[in-house]
Amino acid sequence: MADRLVVIGGDAAGMTAATNARRGRPDLEIVVLEKGHHTSYSACGIPYVVSGAVADLDELVVRTPQEFRDGFRIDVRTRHEVKAIDLDARRIEVRALEQQRTLHLGFDQLHIATGSRPLRPDLPGIDGPEIYGVQTLDDAEHLLAAIRDRPRRHVTVVGAGYIGLEMAEAFVRRGARVTLVDGGPLPMRTFDPDMGARIAAAVRRFGIELRCSTAVEGFEPGAVHTSNGRLATDLVILALGVAPNAGFALDAGLDAGAGGAIAVDHRQRTSREGIYAAGDCADTRHQVSGQRVHIALGTIANKTGRVAGINLGGGYASFPGVLGTAVTRVCEIEIARTGLSQDQADAAGLEYEIGSVEATTRAGYYPGAEPLHAKVLAEKGSGRLLGGQLVGADRAGKRIDTVAAAITAGMTASAFVDLDLAYAPAVSPLWDAFQLAARATLR
Fold it and tell me: Is 44 assigned a catalytic role?
């Protein structure tokens, strides 16, 4: 009888692992258990369906459950929720939601890819009918059905991180009046305050009412109660961030890692033999600080899922860690970051020089040149690049990839300044903005 691999979670880290395990082990029995209706989709695209930029949620689906069954011989079981794991007996308790029955499934190898869960504080009225999250495709279907039936004129978004900003913009594009509420002094807490201030200015220019340093205290039909008064609203979007969805795995006895995630090693192995984890539910190593961290990004989920799958299929692969590189376009600006912010560098005990410059996306005299602000951190003494951030106009954001590559290579600010980067007036200025910022650290 063939060995059985059970995968818990049917999105990026789960299905990437399952398909890579299949390539390595054609004989392996693979069963995927997914709580929702969908597999392998881009949750990052949900705001663009809400805004109308993308026509339909189906366009976000990479592969359906049937495609995995037909193309990879993977037994995908949607609407199956894992309730508990018995590590010693190598058995899982599963609730078949459609049939309303509980079953038990044995395994030889196990891969946990349960992702993250949205933060949902215990506030009065938070389970009200006009309060929505956007974590999964099922969430998005419920939201789209609600706004299709009855357009909302005033929308309140709680949380000014990536998803909060993108959802706020989406509803403005749908013609709604939007209030964006956040408990911090500025949006995007993973950015330094000077960059957050630029993001805040762009949000307000776009027509969003931004209320920072404002705590949400509760909800009632037609209103949100905050520390700065009552907000009338037709619809509430919760975008307060996420935490690792690792509870039942830790309860089963797996070791906990950073941020309450499952602890894994460089091959995505957990503390128990034959059990792997990847994606938002697992921790990872930060390449700059060397510390264990929890960072929930689709890029990390796909890469760590691939590593887990190769190892589960009998091969060898390892994951070197992350920089937390991220980019998005919101309210007609692009924002990007990689490596450590000032707060993160301080927490890691690193001293640094700051280089910060105003530049343009093309040669300043060329039509269409737009402003951008670039910033880098370089370690004092060694000059090693520690991080970079950018706020700019169209065409600016992907410049962050050059900084990410330089940090990964262990480059110094001086070496980065001397990189032979491309130049043409219609494409970029003579000096790249990040090279100028790196040069500013060379005091």
Answer: yes
